[in-house]
Specification:
The protein has eleven helices and three strands, in the order H-E-H-H-E-E-H-H-H-H-H-H-H-H. It is mainly alpha-helical and 263 residues long. It has two domains: 63 residues, Orthogonal Bundle (Arc Repressor Mutant, subunit A); 151 residues, GntR ligand-binding domain-like (Four Helix Bundle (Hemerythrin (Met), subunit A), Up-down Bundle). A three-stranded antiparallel sheet has the order 1-3-2. Helix 4 crosses helix 6. The radius of gyration is 25 Å and the shape is globular. It starts with 14 loop residues before the first helix and ends with a helix.
């Protein structure tokens, strides 16, 4: 039997790639909470690897903005500073408007193909996310869609800045999807509609409409995410009402003593 050519042989996954993929998914799903320490020795034992591929995976996660390597060489999952979220959302709105406007002006036919393909991929990922409850595929395809638009704008500086914001916003998008999934009316059309408006404006080379559609998309995300925060910041705080001791007032104690109720 003839040997398979190098082109048809599957690429073997390295230990570092496997660790990177698993930890990345756990961070984006919030299974590894912001601020969680990541110990190289513990991870090496978990994955049954030496520390070298673990360190390589952590460096790659650091480049993605998902972990922070501290001055003492320890590593933690990048914290989410909720005080800075309004600043993040302002920056996301501005760069989304700029990159989308530039795409409407400078896009080529090849860019349109890439943008439309990314939009179709996003719609399929939404359908899968609604079915399974797992938002990771949708998050990745949303990232691909917006970067395809940014590249069409032909400004590498805006593209790089926008990429950084999209990386930082992946966990927020996961939380946003979980909040949206609470609603019974969640559909592919509802989730993908803002993207379709953006694509239509870029196709028409209407820069003003493209910028406005991008702005409205950013404002929708901002509003829904802030609603999520207001509703859910205390949702996971356990309360055991029976264990909460309430001291009686002086009049209540006096009344108990008068009718012979134990204090």
């Amino acid at each position: 039997m003839a040997k398979a050519s190098a082109e048809t042989q599957p690429v073997k996954e390295t230990g570092a790639v496997r660790v990177y993929g698993i930890l990345r998914d756990e961070i984006l799903r919030m299974q590894l909470a912001p601020g969680t320490p990541l110990d190289e020795i513990g991870l090496a034992e978990r994955f049954e690897l030496s520390r070298s591929p673990i360190r390589e995976a952590l460096l790659r996660l650091s480049a993605d903005g998902l972990v922070e390597i501290l001055p003492n060489r320890s590593t933690v999952v990048t914290p989410m500073d909720f005080r800075r979220i309004p600043d993040f959302l302002d920056a996301l709105d501005l760069l989304q408007r700029v990159t989308t406007r530039l795409a409407a002006v400078h896009r080529s036919n090849a860019d349109l193909v890439a943008i439309r393909d990314a939009q179709k991929g996003y719609e399929k990922a939404i359908a899968a996310s609604i079915k399974t409850g797992d938002s990771l595929g949708m998050i990745d395809k949303n990232y691909d869609f917006h970067l395809a638009i940014a590249r069409a704008g032909r400004n590498v500086y805006f593209t790089d800045l926008y990429r950084r914001l999209l990386d930082e916003g992946r966990r927020m998008l996961h939380l946003h999807f979980e909040y949206e999934a609470m609603a019974d009316e969640l559909t592919v059309g509802k989730m993908a509609g803002p993207h379709s408006d953006i694509v239509d404006a870029i196709v028409a080379r209407d820069a003003d409409r493209a910028e406005e559609a991008a702005h409205q998309h950013a404002m929708q995300f901002r509003g829904r995410f802030m609603q999520f925060l207001n509703r859910n910041l205390t949702a996971n705080v356990p309360l055991n009402i029976q264990s909460i001791a309430v001291e009686p007032t002086a009049s209540e104690s006096s009344e108990k003593a008068r009718i012979g109720v134990p204090g």
